[in-house]
Design a protein that fits this description.
Strand order of the largest sheet: 1-4-5
Order of helices and strands: HEHHHHHHHHEEEEHHEHHEEH
Strand content: 5-15%
Structural class: mainly alpha
Largest sheet: 3 strands, parallel
Number of helices: 14
Shape: globular
Length: about 325
């Protein structure tokens, strides 16, 4: 990726885990024979559960047919900085027929066999069945992994912020991942084939991703909003999900306990609603109660707000 001075001023970090990149990359991970050891427990759990439940097995089969190993169309991972997977599905459903056709041709031009679903989308211009398969996979398979996924991504976002604070943009770009190298004005990355992307003043959104575990990935179409999906470098958390929540739930209630745990790293109302599976209005009610108790603080950023733990809230959470 080639930067201009303007691009360096427009480098930013995604607001949280990118739901469709994580979704698509997790489908690829299930099928990859070279999956790293730390993910194999997750894959074994997913496959064991699928063998016991026909609906889950059908869901996995449909997902694997939709995203086989290798390239996939850009429209499956919308260029949104939005943590709500529903917004991504709506964007996929709204894609114009001409754009879908261009994307499919660009993706599968070198393939001898084009997947049946891609031929269907090319013919009728509808992504309804595609979104149905992705939504089912997201609910049945990816949903249980979201707490660990979100914690790991937030850990990397915090690391990015520290690099930026201590050394500026160049320190951030120079410490993303061992497969990524910053040689001003070029950001080089290991990639399956040679590609050059000129940012041309559009800036770059850095997206740390739990299920990106090998090399960074980006869009095939260089006209898309520039995003670089980077492997998260933090250790995969192994603490049983819900341990802290269970210990706090009797004191503050289940939803507020989950919310406090999610605020181990700063988050917006929208992000918290997506992770907790509740409405933004419900999050606002709970954050008001926690703010009154002095456990969290809320700051406005543009049209939205960001919530974070106060020192008292962090001590309360860590004391269990």
């Amino acid at each position: 990726m080639i930067f201009t001075a303007e691009d360096l001023c427009r480098v930013r970090v995604a607001s949280g885990a990118h739901p469709t990149w994580e979704l698509i990359l997790s489908i690829n991970s299930l099928q990859d024979p070279h999956l790293p050891l730390e993910y194999r427990g997750w894959r074994a759990t997913v496959l064991t559960g699928a063998r016991r439940a026909p609906a889950r097995w059908r869901c996995l089969k449909a997902a694997a047919e939709l995203v086989p190993a290798g390239n996939f169309p850009d429209f499956l991972t919308p260029a949104l900085d939005e943590t709500d997977v529903g917004a991504h599905f709506e964007t996929i459903l709204a894609q114009p027929k001409a754009a879908l056709r261009e994307d499919i041709v660009r993706t599968f031009a070198r393939h001898r066999r084009v997947p049946r679903w891609a031929r269907t989308v090319y013919a009728d211009g509808s992504t309804r069945d595609v979104v149905h398969a992705l939504r089912e996979y997201s609910d049945l398979v990816l949903g249980p992994a979201r707490p660990i996924l979100d914690r790991r991504v937030e850990t990397d976002r915090a690391r990015y912020a520290q690099q930026l604070l201590s050394g500026g943009v160049e320190a951030l770009l120079g410490n993303l991942h061992p497969s990524i190298r910053w040689r001003n004005p070029v950001l080089e990355a290991d990639y399956p084939r040679d590609r050059t992307v000129s940012l041309d003043g559009r800036g770059l959104v850095l997206v740390p991703a739990h299920f990106c575990w090998g090399e960074p990935v980006t869009f095939i179409d260089t006209a898309q909003r520039p995003m670089l999906v980077c492997p998260a470098v933090g250790l995969v958390p192994h603490e049983p999900v819900g341990t802290r929540e269970d210990q706090l739930a009797g004191l503050v209630g289940r939803t507020r306990a989950r919310l406090l745990c999610e605020l181990a790293a700063e988050a917006s109302t929208t992000a918290l609603a997506a992770r907790l599976g509740v409405s933004p209005a419900s999050v606002s009610q709970h954050t008001k109660t926690l703010r009154t108790a002095g456990l969290i603080t809320t700051t406005r950023e543009g049209a939205g707000v960001q919530h974070s733990l106060t020192p008292l809230g962090r001590a309360f959470l860590e004391a269990r």
